[in-house]
Amino acid sequence: MRYADLKSGDQDWFPPVVAESEHIPRVFVFDGRTESGEVSQAVVDQWCRRILLRGDPAWTAVLRPGRLDVLSFEIRGKEVVASTESITPGSGGLTRFIHDVRSGVADLPRRAYLKDLLSESMRQAVDLGVSPIDAVSLVGWGLFWRFLVDRNLLVRKTPDAIAEGAASWRECLSTKGRALKTLRWLEATFDGGLLPFETPPRDYVPEVFSQVLGNIAAGATHQGQLRLPTDWDEINFSHVPVGLLSEVYEAFATALDTPAAKKSSIHYTPRHIAEFVIGEALEAMPDVERPRVLDPSVGAGVFLIAAFRHLVQREWERTGERPRRRQIRRILSNQLSAFDIDKRALRLTQLGLYLTALELDPSPTPIEDLKFSDLGLVLRLRNEVDGSLAAVEKEDVGRFDLVVGNPPWTGHDSAAKRRWVAATSETILKRLGSDAGSFDLPDANPDLAFLWRAGEWAKSGGQIALVVHARWLFGLSPRLLKARGRIFSAFNVTGVLNGAALRQTSVWPSITAPFCVVFARNESSPRGGMFQFVSPFVEAKDTREQAVLRVDWADAQTVSHEEVQSTPWALKSRFRGNSLARRAFDTLRGAGVPLGEYLDSLKPGLQFRNGYQVGGKAGVQQSAKHMSGMADLKDSVADTFLLDASDLPEFRRDTLLFPRDPKIYEGPLLLVRKMIPADPLVPRAMRSDTTLAFHESFHGVSFKDVRRGSDHARVLQILLQSRLGNFVSLLTDALYGVERETLYKESFEAFPIIPLDRLTDEQFASMRQLSKEMESGIDSALFDTLNAFVFDLYGLDAVERLAIEDTLDTRGPASASVRRAVTPTNNDERARFIGVVKESLDDVLQASGLSATVAEVVNQCGPWRVLSISTRPTSVTSVPLDALVKEADETGLSLVVLPMTSSHVFVGLPDRYRHWTRTQAVLLAHDLLGGALGNG
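Given the sequence above, the corresponding structure tokens read:
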């Protein structure tokens, strides 16, 4: 049903075959073969232009005699430049494009063209005296009219019959008199309360109609040139999916009322994310014949419109017959509901639903039979104080099979949070048992409050699928630990998609905050409850080129609810580390003592402190005279491991917002940057033997009056400067690798430390020597020596050391790590990987007198490089490519294992370095021995 608009066209139009993945289109394949050879380039340009106007994150491909041409587009202003890559039969090349996350990179300017036109029309209307809310209705009526005209729904009608004196459809809206007649005709014909006006249109100045409505009403002209539209007459609304219109609300809201948009957390959700969430959620309820769906913060309706299409398709599959108008309208009126505090949002959603109903109608004529029912009970306006977070109305309790959407994330005040907590029903809180009486939300951001309300709206056992901020997954503070534990206790969480690694990509262009999708059944966590946790990673060399959310189910991990509640870093360590990295972390924790405990044992109350804060216009300045004359680290280049106070300027400020206790600045000091440097050779931890003032960019601890204080500072500096410093932070900290490259104090204090008094005399001497050498700076050789010393202190084995190095090299947030992870492998890297696989297999097989044979198959197959792995002699040497592709398509995995016999498999690995590390080789061998080669 999503491609209903592609089924018809002119004589040169041939509907394409659509290759989908994760519920979204990836490749539109046209048949360019004819009896006489091939279609002309002009026809191909028309096909490409029509796909461009859809705004889908997909490639366009044309089947030619003996090859498949895949076209990619580069947008230069309004011009579109196409390039072609040809694929030969049997090469598996099409699969590479289906999995290529760059397929939507040209989609961003495609969507922008429509947003620009809509925003400009809205601005024109407002400039001519139309209120912002009525501007939405005015432009909406223009779009509705164009939809009817371009999709030929006004058959057997003439312009003059609708608006007397009009000689064309455009003229029906180009003057005030004719436009008022046309609007009256539309209201009478379709009814349903569509797009009401607060100020009657008759009160608008004539220019509103001639310059705004008349321009939108300009009919589409034939366009053979491959470029983006520059005006309304270059858009054919028979080619623009209705769902694309719902994405423009952000442009409307922010352009017309930016403060209100930010306050209300207005932002559009890309259709491909909404389609993925809706598809996954509805697939989880196969036994519900006619599910009722609620979006409690509907915005422009992207989720609700996607749900509408899926429900119509579901009805078709259930009955075996395409739904007719009566069934489609029943779904619209009885199975969909939405709330919002913004009238504009509801009006745009209403328009989108009406247009979708017309688009899905198998026979949308005659026009007189298309009258709509009022959607007042479907789309409900909430008050602006608490909106959907007010107490749930009795009629909505337990009413819905699915609660879905992207609720606002923007913070409110503490008073709002108290009201949300007070309005939470006792029924849902009873699931928390003895903790119910102390229920609270972790902060005044509304997204998690919506999750708790969803438990009241949804039926018992119903589905919940919400897009929320990812902060709650990883926080180590007591309030976030409590919040996470309550959610995994009160709900049967079945899946979490963590999108934190994608925040700076084009997957969600307007959002830089980390997001996640929570899937849950509305019931208490069962005993032994488990869920799937998956974290898509960047797969494009240039992060800005990744425009598609691709879930590699090979990365999905099964996690227990109990572990999430009991282990603070359960999800963060899975996000940034694999099972061997977690094993290494467990070894570190077993060998060390938490830094916070260690410091307190040296001197009660000893801990890292925040440096002084200058402040700005906000806040009350305090006297800083007690710091006068101290050496001041601020505005200095802190690029040495031992700071010399004589090289620093004196502190000269009279006041500070937070001057801090002067005792925290007394030497000997250890200072640690809050922001982790991308270069491991740059000082992260610095010492000072004397007093100096440090600012808020550092955590600092003073070892004044601590016995052997300088040596404690030295050993901590070495540990924190080593690879372990970044590694532990990457696997535990709620900020680092999630939202910013800084650290929370909670995770910093949990760092496992080897106490100074545990060092042997030899280790102590080595520590002092390393510390002395660091004072002159660190090069690569010294850094390797430092890491070997630290790894030995913790007793890490060879595999754990590799896991730490590979994790930092390929799973870190720094751009160098991201690029390294997606870089194609070279011969040496693959040979090393093959050697480790064989060695790991032989370690187990030798007990049975067997030895593994591991070899790369020469021909590259689509997005994979293929290995042949056997434990006994085999005669099969060629890759069954069709079977490999079929396995990849059916499993959704990028890593494909294709068993040939009990002792021989082909393994397809994506040609990206993160899949070819030594650690991944060990894991692959382990998985094969426990699975495909377990009986070989």
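The radius of gyration is 31 Å. Try to locate this feature in the token string yourself.
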